Amino acid sequence: MASFSFPITTTAFVLLFLSLTSNVFNLAAKHSHSSSIKAIKNPRLQKAFIALQAWKRVIYSDPRNMTSNWVGPSVCNYTGVYCAPFPNDTKVQTVAGIDLNHGNIAGYLPDELSLLNDLALLHLNSNRFCGILPLSFSNLTLLYELDISNNRFVGPFPSVVLSLPSLKYLDLRFNEFEGPLPPQLFSKNLDAIFVNNNLFTSTIPSNLGSSSASVVVFANNYFGGCLPPSIANFANTLEELVLSNISLSGCLTPEVGFLYKLKVLDVSNNKLAGPIPYTIAGLAHLELINLAHNMFSGIVPEGICVLPKLSNFTFSYNYFCEEQGICSNLTSKGIVYDDRRNCLPEKPVQRNKKECDAVDEHPIDCLAFHCGT
């Protein structure tokens, strides 16, 4: 029997025991992981198992225990993981979707998620994921919907999404992305673009209208500048345009009136000036218009107030001096409206005479107005 040539203390013995048992447990875990992979005969689910286990290891808070059953080879039974037949071979199951919305999970997205080649849907709304999107996401060539809204992602616009050929729905809102939007974003065949409530800066790219989206929401960023006239190129698709609180300036381009499918137009809380483009009176599908908290002036044209589907018209906190026809009493048509804090004679809660006179003394000619001056 071997004997120690030096006395061993209780503390040293405990440390030695922990070291030995730790090695045993590590070997057992590796063996279990290897056995689980070997137990999966479907190579697509094998890769999914590796990816999901790598993800679980970098999740450090899961208060709702959404990933607590992410154990063992049966990945299709994991909470939030959805399997479906592989399109090219319907006898083979694959991971087609992941939905962990409202999980309040903290962690980050590891490179191994790129092993989920067949993923079509990734919904991570309302969690605490941080860091950046891995460049390896470019392997997710079937990804159709990407929703990482309401998390803690940082850095510049995640350019990796521009390389996803199947992407139609992009939701980055309520994160901490910063810097400019790449013009390439509007060359993609997207149906919905949500980038609101981030820290994006610079101006809206001039090729904005190259997109085919039906919904565009830029609200609560720091773009500034003008709305590009290329917005007219959205005419065949755009139904909702939300540009509130992005520091837009200049006049509202009359090309907005070319968007004949538009239902929602919100340019509130900006620095837009001049009259309302009368072209808006041709938008027969328009239901909601919000022009509040700008520097619009002149007349509120009746052509807008008689739009057939209009249900809400807000133009408060501007410098309008006249409401044509029915515009002064839209409640008679069942339309919700707000005309406070303008320069409307005989209407309550208006601006004082000094403010209104200052605008009258410096009228804006939008035809002569150069964007950014």
Automatic annotation (TrEMBL):
SUPFAM superfamilies xrefs: L domain-like
Keyword list, A-Z: Cell wall, Glycoprotein, Hydroxylation, Repeat, Secreted, Signal
Pfam families reported in the protein's UniProt record: LRR_1, LRR_8
Signal peptide: 1-28
Annotated InterPro entries: Leu-rich_rpt, LRR_dom_sf, LRR_extensin-like_regulator
Principal cellular location given in the protein's record: secreted
Subcellular localization: Secreted, Cell wall
Superkingdom of the source species: Eukaryota
Name under which the protein is recorded: Cell wall hydroxyproline-rich glycoprotein
Source organism per UniProt: Capsicum annuum (Capsicum pepper)
